[in-house]
Amino acid sequence: MKPTRPGPLVGIVVVIALLTWAVVRQMYSDLPLMPWTAIPTVLLLAIGEAYSGWATKARIARKPGTKPVEPLAVARLAALAKASAYAGTVFGGIFAGFALHTAQILDRETPRGEFFVATGSFVSCVVLVCAALYLEHACRIPKDPDATRD
Questions:
Q1: What is the DSSP letter of 63?
Q2: In this predicted model, what pLDDT tens digit does every residue of 38-96 receive, in sequence order?
Q3: Most buried by CB count within 10 Å: which residue of 13, 78, 82, 143?
Q4: How many other β-carbons are positioned within 10 Å of the β-carbon of residue 4?
Q5: Segment (H or E) for 36
Q6: What is the Cα–Cα distance from 43 to 33, expressed in whole angstroms?
Q7: Residue 122 CB: number of other CB atoms within 10 A?
Q8: Alpha-helical runs (H) found in the chain
Q9: Which residues of 29-68 are buried (b: 16+ CB within 10 A; e: fewer)?
């Protein structure tokens, strides 16, 4: 599995945001209110992944007081990180597109509230993607310092 690069993630956010903006522009009055609960939920997921990355990195480095980590568990965490990065990117694009549309009609009360919810949800998705990239980085096998001492 290759490491996730940030460039394609940014491209996905832009494309999904523009598609969402185009759809929401046509159907905004038919949509239900956006729930604010996505913000704390995604932030909790980000905290969990960041903590898993920190703990995994310490276990892989065999820091004192940590148990060795199972290789299959590291592979599963890396797969979780990759999936979370892409899912956070897609949902972040959806929230960004929604925020783009509501930013144009901030003079009304309901769209103003939804703008702040969409923006907060977008920021929490960015935090999730950063945590996922950190977890993926933490799952890498460290370079052997003895191999470089020829």
A1: -
A2: 999 999 999 999 999 999 999 988 888 888 889 899 999 999 999 999 999 999 999 99
A3: 13
A4: 21
A5: none
A6: 20
A7: 25
A8: 6-27, 38-60, 71-103, 109-138
A9: eeeeebeeebbeebbebbeebbebbebbbebbeeeeeeee
In angstroms, the CA 138 to CA 150 distance is: 27
pLDDT, tens digit, 9 for 90 and up, residues 85-142: 999 999 999 999 999 999 988 778 788 889 999 999 999 999 999 999 999 999 988 7
Report d(CA 120, CA 124) in Å as an integer.
Answer: 6
Residue with tokens 């923006």: 119
Beta carbons within 8 Å of 41's beta carbon, 6+ residues apart: none
Cβ 95 vs Cβ 121: under 8 Å: yes
What pTM did the predictor assign?
0.88
Q: How far apart are CA 71 and CA 41, in angstroms?
A: 29
Nearest to 111, CA basis, from 29, 55, 45, 52? 29
